[in-house]
Amino acid sequence: MEHFHRQWWIAGRQIEPLDTRLLVLEPSIIRPRGGQKRERPGRELLYWEQVDRAVRIAQYGQTIQEGEAAKAAAAKQAGDKTVEGEKITQLLEASNKASLQTSNKSCNLGSGREQPGYITQYATSSAYLCNALMVFEALQRLGSRAQRVLFYPEDWDVHIESDRDRDSQLLSLAREKYNVQLVPIDVKMIKAGAGPDESWDKSISKLLVFGETEYDRIIHIDSDVNVLQNMDELFFLPSAKVAMPRAYWRLPDEKQLSSLLIVIEPSYREFSALMDAARPDLYDMELLNDQYGDSAIVLPHRQYGLITGEFRAENHKNYLGNEYEIWDPDKVLSEAKLVHFSDWPLPKPWVMWPQKVLAETLPKCQNNPGTPKESGCRNRELWRTFYDDFRRRRKNICKLLSYPAPDIDTDSRSQ
């Protein structure tokens, strides 16, 4: 990537052209689009990032009173402290009402910093590229009004050279059918200093969205999910650097936030601080909890943090949050905006199940499990539906079949 020999200022500090901090920022500051280079923002823009600002809701081209009122009320109550999921539920309901009132109005996405956007996980392989496309398809089908953005390695070619050029076909499909903005990124920028652990390189790639300051607010969704409902109401949350759902399945031992869905207010300052704090022994979830665990808005996990493994659990206390409520899988599914695939030791849904492992992990029926008279198998039915639906959509949208089941030694594996 070309170096620009001029003085730059970030958060009031002069940075030399070859400063590593500036190099980290380069993918977000300048990147190719349509064969042209985007101009760098001026010094005033970078300096302005120091100033705390209220979230501007420009997605629908006008001020939404309900959303603004909810935002102001929450900001007054929350201050700099964590806003728990139960406390934010009423705000989300008001935001959802405002979102629904504008769902049939045209968006004024404009240009500059006044446009929110959905961003899926950085596509580092054909499998994750297809996953991202499936998320985009769901967002479009469910009526999301936000822009859609996809990061992908800059050495991938959008030009389709043959019928077997699947990656290029999927990139073209994302752009032409689902109105996705394609953003090529220099992979070496992501991997610099990360060491040999490739999974860590890919894990921190989602942190790139913190540097995308052309957007006022970003919703980053992991791509190994089934999106079930529109989530545009999250753009109307009160101002906060980060909002995430609770990783409820780790309670009570660990009180952590989950990075499967993140609502972000991009900032060069925050992005630089995150990259400074990143190291090979930290994954994105740990890093984000270290940085924002005490200040983030905590989203209700029932709507924004459901995992497929919950339908295999025998005890649902962590999900329900109490001892008296009765688990109702259909009610749970009706409340959820998405469901995240998490069923260790089973592989992700684009990989077929090893039959021995499947037999051990399949959700058990409530009555007479494992016998010809077993009944009460609704958890199992829904759980299978999650995977069947994912694989069906993968075939229909991406024209891809699942990968063969891996050979897993169930006697020697360890968590």
Automatic annotation (TrEMBL):
Gene3D superfamilies: Spore Coat Polysaccharide Biosynthesis Protein SpsA, Chain A. It comes from Aspergillus tanneri. The keyword Glycosyltransferase applies. It comes from the Eukaryota. InterPro entries: GNT1/Glycosyltrans_8, Nucleotide-diphossugar_trans. Keywords: Glycosyltransferase, Transferase. One of its GO terms (molecular function) is glycosyltransferase activity. The lineage of its organism: Eukaryota, Fungi, Dikarya, Ascomycota, Pezizomycotina. Transmembrane segments: none annotated. This is N-acetylglucosaminyltransferase.
